[in-house]
């Protein structure tokens, strides 16, 4: 199926990865160091930028002491964390406790290896050697990114378990549930891109967006991925694994010094990585935006693609910061409901529609016929959903009428041996109130519900 798509769609070229793997060892080392430096510099800038943007949104000053305009604040924070005392709690599993930050940080750097910063051809010259602006590429590069991102979550889960404390354990369990919930929706969003591009190679996917970005052709997949990437990185409003409001600090509560810094580094590196994946799959990758590419032929050649890629990364990082400064943290049940009841069903239906369109295009159907078929299927689904809602509403009203005929059940908050709050539709029994009399005795206002209340009411 995938091999037939490039033959029938002339604007999609078959993936050619022969230019990778031919660079000398020293050039591979330089490109690997550049990928690491790109992530580190972007993280250092993003931490300061986040603090300044959130301060601007909240009418505060923000960092302005370390370096010009406070731009060295993140570097000062890193030095401070490295010089702090490194504590290890007694009840911790020390081997896993030490390895957890490393497991969380290292996979965050690995995904950048298959992200293209420029065209796949030999576009730039480094010390006289022509090479591509990408460390390497794979026929299944996107699957490699998904696998590496999944390994990073083991660090959070192991950190919560090995700390030997309640709150970190709850944070680790939340992280595992969140990964399962949003990884499925993210994979389905990727599937639509695979169907449209005919490849899982990152360079081939960017090449397929020469005429139009996939964010325009596949807007539902793009929006689902944007929500999923916020959930994948544990950022507000989905920072359940480390919500300081109810878990103190979550999975990293018992960590300090450099180990805490590695968790913080992994979070921001993951932000850069998922932003780079969003750019590669949906926003044209290293290609210049439309007005620039239309009027300047050299915008996508030489070193210029690196500039466009960096600007797009900073734009998506600003979206992360904007969401953090605008939305409150959701409840955990809302997080699970959004993942399982909204994102996954919508992603599955959308992938079916995209697959139908691709199959009809491969059979040389006219575009108007495709619109009629797909539109008819969507209308049929909406009608079925409407009929189901009507019958469910009638059944709910009948159940409410049957409940209204009988007496409401009495709610006992102490039925289980400990007090519990009432559920929707239940009310607490009236609480007896006592008010002091002028002569020092107590008068019970309301019925005597307990034996002690009756004795006090009788003056005993």
TrEMBL record:
Whether Methyltransferase counts among this entry's keywords is: no
Q: What class of enzyme is it?
A: translocase
Species of origin = Streptomyces pathocidini
Q: Which GO terms describe its molecular function?
A: NADH dehydrogenase (quinone) (non-electrogenic) activity
Q: Does the keyword Oxidoreductase apply?
A: yes
Q: How does it sit in the membrane?
A: Multi-pass membrane protein
Spell out the InterPro entries in the cross-references: NADH_UbQ_OxRdtase_su1/FPO (IPR001694), NADH_UbQ_OxRdtase_su1_CS (IPR018086)
Catalysed reaction(s) here are: a quinone + NADH + 5 H(+)(in) = a quinol + NAD(+) + 4 H(+)(out)
Q: What is this protein called?
A: NADH-quinone oxidoreductase subunit H
């Amino acid at each position: 199926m995938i091999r037939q798509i490039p033959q029938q769609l002339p604007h999609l070229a078959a993936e050619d990865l022969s230019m990778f793997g031919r660079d000398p060892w020293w050039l591979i080392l330089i490109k690997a160091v550049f990928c690491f430096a790109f992530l580190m510099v972007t993280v250092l800038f993003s931490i300061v930028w986040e603090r300044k943007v959130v301060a601007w949104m909240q009418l505060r000053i923000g960092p302005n002491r370390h370096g010009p305009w406070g731009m060295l604040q993140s570097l000062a924070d890193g030095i401070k964390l490295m010089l702090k005392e490194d504590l290890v709690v007694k009840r911790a599993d020390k081997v896993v406790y030490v390895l957890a930050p490393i497991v969380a940080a290292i996979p965050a750097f690995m995904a950048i290896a298959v992200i293209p910063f420029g065209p796949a051809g030999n576009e730039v010259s480094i010390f006289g050697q022509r090479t591509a602006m990408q460390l390497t590429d794979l026929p299944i590069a996107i699957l490699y990114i998904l696998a590496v991102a999944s390994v990073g979550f083991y660090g959070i889960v192991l950190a919560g378990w090995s700390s030997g404390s309640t709150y970190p354990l709850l944070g680790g369990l939340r992280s595992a549930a969140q990964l399962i919930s949003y990884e499925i929706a993210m994979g389905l969003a990727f599937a639509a891109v695979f169907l449209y591009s005919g490849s899982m190679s990152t360079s081939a996917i960017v090449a397929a967006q020469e005429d139009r970005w996939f964010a325009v052709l596949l807007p539902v997949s793009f929006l689902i991925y944007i929500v999923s990437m916020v959930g994948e990185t544990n950022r507000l409003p989905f920072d359940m694994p480390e919500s300081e409001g109810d878990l103190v600090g979550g999975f990293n509560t018992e960590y300090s010094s450099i180990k805490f810094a590695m968790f913080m580094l992994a979070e921001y590196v993951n932000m850069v990585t998922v932003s780079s994946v969003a750019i590669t799959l949906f926003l044209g990758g290293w290609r210049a935006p439309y007005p620039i590419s239309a009027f300047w032929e050299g915008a996508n050649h030489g070193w210029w693609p690196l500039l466009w890629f960096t600007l797009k990364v900073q734009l998506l990082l600003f979206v992360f910061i904007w969401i953090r400064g605008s939305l409150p943290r959701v409840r955990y049940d809302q997080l699970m409901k959004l993942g399982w009841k909204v994102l996954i069903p919508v992603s599955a239906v959308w992938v079916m529609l995209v697959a139908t369109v691709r199959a009809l295009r491969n059979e040389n159907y006219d575009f108007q016929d495709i619109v009629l078929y797909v539109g008819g299927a969507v209308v049929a689904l909406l009608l079925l959903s409407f009929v189901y809602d009507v019958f469910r509403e009638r059944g709910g009203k009948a159940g409410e009428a049957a409940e209204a005929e009988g007496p409401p059940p009495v709610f006992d908050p102490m039925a289980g041996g400990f007090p519990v709050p009432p559920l929707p539709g239940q009310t607490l029994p009236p609480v007896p109130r006592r008010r002091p009399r002028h002569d020092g005795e107590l008068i019970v206002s309301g019925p005597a519900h307990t034996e002690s209340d009756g004795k006090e009411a009788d003056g005993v």
